[in-house]
Amino acid sequence: MTPPAAPRPAQLGPLLAHCRLARGWSQQRAAAELCAASGVPTLSRHEVSRWERQRRVPGGFWLGWLALVLDVPLVTLAEAAAATRRAGSTGAAGQGRTARAGAPPAGRTGPGRTGGTTRGGRARVRTTR
């Protein structure tokens, strides 16, 4: 049975949470289903949480598996991911948080890393695999 069509929120986090909850799944269960479907055993509940809180935006690889596991059209997830990326970080990523030890300074992401802030000071959303 397919869950009722979700309203198309402008951003990905609320859409993922809505689709997961419509299936009655915890974040742990969603992560387990994604691991089983993709064959990647290392995805955790924490990553699902980061996606739903929009601390990170899943890349094309995970968007494809999310579409399959949550039974949502890939184009719907891709549009929501693009809207989330355009909007930038929506959480408290830059508010009241202190830098982690060993983290690059704001605005400097270092080689092979994503995240940080843009020159205008607006936080960027991380994209994962």
How would you explain this protein's 3D organization?
The protein has 5 helices and 2 strands. With 129 residues, it is mainly α. Helix 2 (27-38) packs across helix 3. It is globular and about 30 Å long.
Short description:
It contains 5 helices and 2 strands; from the N terminus they run αααβααβ. A two-stranded parallel sheet has the order 1-2. The longest helix has 14 residues.
Q: Biggest sheet, in brief?
A: 2 strands, parallel
Q: Order of strands in the sheet with the most strands? A: 1-2
Q: State the separation between the terminal residues, measured CA to CA.
A: 30 Å
Which residues form runs of ≥5 with pLDDT under 50?
90-122
Helical amount among residues, as a percent range? Answer: 40-55%
Q: Note the quaternary state here.
A: single chain
Strand content: under 5%
Number of helices: 5
| Mean pLDDT level | 77
SSE string, helices as H and strands as E: HHHEHHE
**Structural class by sheet pairing and helices:** mainly alpha
- Shape estimate: globular
